[in-house]
Amino acid sequence: MASSNAIPIFFLLALLFGASSAQLSETFYDRTCPRLPNIVRAAVKKAIETDIRAGAKLIRLHFHDCFVNGCDGSVLLEDAPGIVSELNSPGNQGIQGLEIVDAIKAAVESECPNTVSCADILAQASKDSVDVQGGPSWRVLYGRRDSRIANKTGADSGLASPFETLVQLKKKFSDVGLGTTDLVALSGAHTFGRSRCRFFSHRFANFNNTGRPDPSLDANYRGFLQGVCSAGPDTRANFDPTTPDVFDKNYYTNLQAGKGLLQSDQELFSTAGADTIAIVNSFAAREGTFFKEFRQSMINMGNIKPLTGSRGEIRKNCRRVNSAMGGEGHDVM
């Protein structure tokens, strides 16, 4: 009788432990790396001082990491035996910032060796990138571990494309457990940063084989962009033509004026009857509303399928998995 009662108790404890190990926490590094937020913030500020696009690069890496297999640092892995990098995916064309992550990781390792995952560094660096440039702040949850694999196939199918419709965008967000408000709020990260002309020049003429420009693109803005892109398809244009290096609500007022840079941006406001229109209007009307929802959506995204407990590893070098002999890092609970 006693042994039969022990079985369900054992499984109950196992379930409770499993649930607790999967929880991320603000205090995860309080004892092992208490200065982590300060270290990362200082490195992010230094990067932005020399490259105004550094913040946008870091947050894009975090986004593209979380949408493929969850927030596990897999986007940072380069090609290696047994690993086909997600960086080879069309959705990661032109993605930049790995050298910034390297510098942040080096600063963290110098004070807290073999302790902080690359996935957690991306989460913290994204927060700092936003609030250093005028956006909201939030408390980052920690405890993610780094993947030992990459998933290029998942990146090919799961990353949002600048050429997609609202229906397609909603599907990709839904697939990772994010809703419509998350879609509109997180798209607001395009309030800073740049995009190459090859990702939006299809809007200038014969849009969707109509023989005409994209009707949702303001004609004057289209003319301006055509002038920018006359230098070539890899020329970059600001996402936000008004305050390109400040994190603010102008992304949404730009959408109202037909000045969303990417098709996928303008779809949020110009898709007839879409429920996203009211959300865009509310964010455009009050920056505090946008900041509140962006903060929560970043936390929601950061919670997508993290590796926790004994799964994964703590990479020593964010671009490659640790050696089988354990010489480049070790597991830290």
UniProtKB/TrEMBL annotation:
GO terms for biological process: hydrogen peroxide catabolic process; response to oxidative stress. Ca(2+) 2 binds at residues 191, 240, 243, 248. Pfam families: peroxidase. Binds 1 heme b (iron(II)-protoporphyrin IX) group per subunit. Binds 2 calcium ions per subunit. It is an enzyme of class 1 (oxidoreductase). Gene3D superfamilies: 1.10.520.10, Peroxidase, domain 2. Ca(2+) 1 binds at residues 65, 68, 70, 72, 74, 86. Keywords: Calcium, Disulfide bond, Glycoprotein, Heme, Hydrogen peroxide, Iron, Metal-binding, Oxidoreductase, Peroxidase, Secreted, Signal. PROSITE patterns: PEROXIDASE_1, PEROXIDASE_2, PEROXIDASE_4. Heme b binds at residue 190. Residues 23-322 form the Plant heme peroxidase family profile domain. Its cofactor is heme b; Ca(2+). It catalyses: 2 a phenolic donor + H2O2 = 2 a phenolic radical donor + 2 H2O. One of its GO terms (molecular function) is metal ion binding. InterPro entries: Haem_peroxidase, Haem_peroxidase_sf, Peroxidase_pln, Peroxidases_AS, Peroxidases_heam-ligand_BS, Secretory_peroxidase. The active site is at residue 64. Residues 1-22 form the signal peptide. Its main location: secreted. It comes from the Eukaryota. It is found in: Secreted. GO terms for cellular component: extracellular region. The record marks 60 as: Transition state stabilizer. PANTHER family: PEROXIDASE 58 (PTHR31388:SF147), PEROXIDASE 72-RELATED (PTHR31388). Removal of H(2)O(2), oxidation of toxic reductants, biosynthesis and degradation of lignin, suberization, auxin catabolism, response to environmental stresses such as wounding, pathogen attack and oxidative stress. These functions might be dependent on each isozyme/isoform in each plant tissue. Belongs to the peroxidase family. Classical plant (class III) peroxidase subfamily. This is Peroxidase. The gene is LOC111484052.
